[in-house]
Amino acid sequence: MSDFLISALAGLDPYVPGEQPQGREYVKLNTNESPFPPSPRVLDALNREEVSRLNLYSDPTALPLRRAIADVYDLSPDNVFCGNGSDEVLGLSFLAFADAAHPVTFPAVSYGFYRVFANLFRVPTNAVPLRDDFTVPVEPFLGTGGMVVLANPNAPTGISLPLAEVERIVRANPDHIVLVDEAYVDFGGESALPLLASCPNLLIVRTFSKSRSLAGARLGYALANAPVIDDLNRVRCSFHPYNINRLSMLAGIEAMRDTAYFESCVQSVVRQRGETAAELRGLGFSMTDSRANFLFAAHPALTARGYYEALKARGVLIRCWDDPALREHVRITIGTREQMRRLVLETRAILSERTIS
Ligand SMILES: *Cc1c(COP(=O)(O)O)cnc(C)c1O
To answer: Is the pLDDT of residue 227 over 90?
Structure first.
């Protein structure tokens, strides 16, 4: 730390991204990316001609991308906001809708960035503990007096909150934004989209990073009623009006339009999730009912850290945590059929080594 950092930020506890080894040495099942490349239409759109236009600024309204997103959900572009990854959308949402006088409420076990943004923007937090089965209790989210943030399906548990419960929460906080982070909804969750027409305080946040195979392009978006989108744009244009670069904009448009490719990728992940869950259960693992592109699993004879280390030594990268609430579990991203076979194979070897020694 230099002598120049302002004292208010001296205690910052930044988000720590999962390991991103830049070689290709691992079967990478640790940060919930898609195992599939972007749609072939994305590859065609990013050609030499488009690269040669990088001397020009991108469209600060991102209108073509907003239109492509709006078309898929039968909305107007006025209902769509685009960000440099959904992390940026989340950050701008905290900046726009949460302040020191109104604590933000979110599940104690959820996406780690919610707490980081609250701290950065000096918003007090109300972290609601999960039930023992990792489900989110609804009561503590009713009439909170501030913004509510929910990941649905939740991370890293994969558990989905039924639409009726999301609706109760949205309607019980009419004076504050209820932000529903639907990063994983395409893999089997229930979207809050049907509530949008009747809930002016609902803000849905989505990403291209998981189901659209574009984590490296950094694209996320929000769906909400036009006044809420306007607010986000006021904040965005006070900070970074060209937040979507030219190439990512083109990539996002094609990824959104190629419905057939999107659906086949999602179907493959859902199928592999089912098959891998069955294999791991057969090996003694227990796990939540994940509606996301990962499994949240524990084994009675393995510590999470030990399993993680043993897999890493065998070339497979997964995720584990030091947080006491998560310490017994690992999160395994669903990859291709071949990647999941490798995971099961190495896991079987790790378990049999244990029995021998
Ligand atoms: C991955 C993830 C994000 C971040 O997505 P980006 O668009 O890559 O910034 C946001 N929320 C949740 C719950 C996630 O899992």
So the answer is: yes
Question: What angle, 0 to 180 degrees and rounded to 10, lies between the N-to-C axes of helices 85-97 and 113-120?
Answer: 40
Give the tokens for residue 235: 């904040």
Query: Sorting pLDDT into bands at 50, 70 and 90, what band is 22?
Result: confident
Please report the sign of the dihedral spanned by the C-alpha atoms of residue 83, residue 45, residue 256, residue 56.
positive
| Residue 45 near residue 247 (C-beta atoms within 8 A) | no
Q: Measure 353 CA to ligand 1 centroid, in angstroms.
A: 36
What does pLDDT average to over the chain?
96
- CB count, 10 Å around CB of 181? 29
Structure tokens at 281: 């259960």
- Cα 307 to middle of ligand 1, angstroms: 25
**What pLDDT is attached to residue 357?**
53
Is 220 a pocket residue for ligand 1 (Cβ < 6 Å)?
Answer: yes
Contact present, 187 and 211 (Cβ < 8 Å): yes
Write the DSSP string, 1-42.
Answer: --S-S-GGGTT-----PPP--SSS-SEE-SS---SSPPPHHH
Q: Whose CA is nearest to atom 14 of ligand 1?
A: 183
- Determine the atom of ligand 1 nearest the C-alpha atom of 110: 13
pLDDT of residue 354: 79
Residue 28 bridge partners (DSSP): 317
Query: Is any ligand 1 atom within 6 A of the Cβ of residue 87?
Result: yes
Q: How confident is the model at residue 356 (pLDDT cuts 50, 70, 90)?
A: low
Q: Of all atoms in ligand 1, which is nearest to the CA of residue 31? A: 1
Buried/exposed code over 241-270 (b: 16+ C-beta within 10 A; e: otherwise): eebbbbbbbbbbbbbbbbeebbeebbebbb
Q: pLDDT confidence of 177, banded at 50, 70, 90?
A: very high
Q: Which atom of ligand 1 lies nearest, measured to the CA of 215?
A: 8
Cβ–ligand 1 contact at 292 (below 6 Å)? no
Say if ligand 1 is within 6 A of residue 205 CB. Answer: no
Q: Is 183 in the pocket of ligand 1 (CB under 6 A)?
A: yes
